[in-house]
Amino acid sequence: MVDRLANSEANTRRISIVENCFGAAGQPLTIPGRVLIGEGVLTKLCRKKPKARQFFLFNDILVYGNIVIQKKKYNKQHIIPLENVTIDSIQDEGDLRNGWLIKTPTKSFAVYAATATEKSEWMNHINKCVSDLLSKSGKTPSNEHAAVWVPDSEAAVCMRCQKAKFTPVNRRHHCRKCGFVVCGPCSEKRFLLPSQSSKPVRICDFCYELLSAGEVTACQSARSDSYSPSPKSALNDVSDDDDDEDSSD
Predict the structure, then answer these.
(1) Residue 61 sits in the same domain as residue 156
(2) Which stretches of the chain drop beneath a pLDDT of 50?
(3) Of 32, 65, 107, 124, which is most buried, counting CB atoms within 10 Å of its CB?
(4) Domain count, the chain
(5) Are residue 27 and residue 86 in the same domain, yes or no?
(6) Per-residue b/e over 141-177, b at no fewer than 16 CB within 10 Å?
(7) pTM listed for this prediction
């Protein structure tokens, strides 16, 4: 069906509408062979709080942005190549239901659908697109992905030293390797993570020691073994960078 739609007038028109909704700030999306598979609103778990985002699934990329005017205008366009994507289901917990992780080498995050049916459809379509792309290219699935950041609301104190309390003065930072919320003194070092940045990025002391010793996989397991998201409300809004923008902190 994808091949049949690739050069159809209806598909070209749908993609053009998406381009127009992002305006001049968005990147062009129309290329030969690209097909718009589906679209919808998903709740993205951002570092400060869950936020509604508009998602568009194409046969080769996943695009999302902030909703300015529903169905008419979006901004802060993000484009994720599907070849690099892996997804994992998340168990329902409290108000956070029907969710899954979208993991890539550069950025990983959790999203939630309104219903279990929507979740199933999204995951099935994404997996099918990824499978088709890898089959055509002969590539293997990516086994490296960026850590999913722990939301600010999950940490009243530094998740490494377990002592420093966060205040408007003592601000939160995120380790780019494990995703933990850490204080400044526990994350003063930088390390080059080529999949995430061309420059050294902030990481916690724990991950720095492991990376310096060549124990790369231990950093990833350190997070997954010790953190499980919970549906807490935000404690306070004292983050040091915006939840939807890359930053040096």
Answers:
(1) no
(2) 221-249
(3) 65
(4) 2
(5) yes
(6) ebeebbbbbbbbbbbeebbbeeebebeeeeebbbbbb
(7) 0.82
- Flag whether 242 is in a domain: no
> What is the domain-level CATH number for residue 16?
2.30.29.30
Residue 63 lies in a domain: yes
DSSP string across 205-221:
HHHHHHHHTT-HHHHHH
- The per-residue pLDDT for 143 is 82
Residue 144: the pLDDT is 85
Please report whether residue 142 resides in a domain.
Answer: no
CA distances from 73 to 27, 50, 54 (A): 14, 20, 10
Q: Provide the domain limits for residue 182.
A: 152-213
Measured CA distances, 153 to 55, 60, 125, 189 (Å): 25, 34, 32, 24
Residue 80's H or E segment, with its range, is strand 73-81
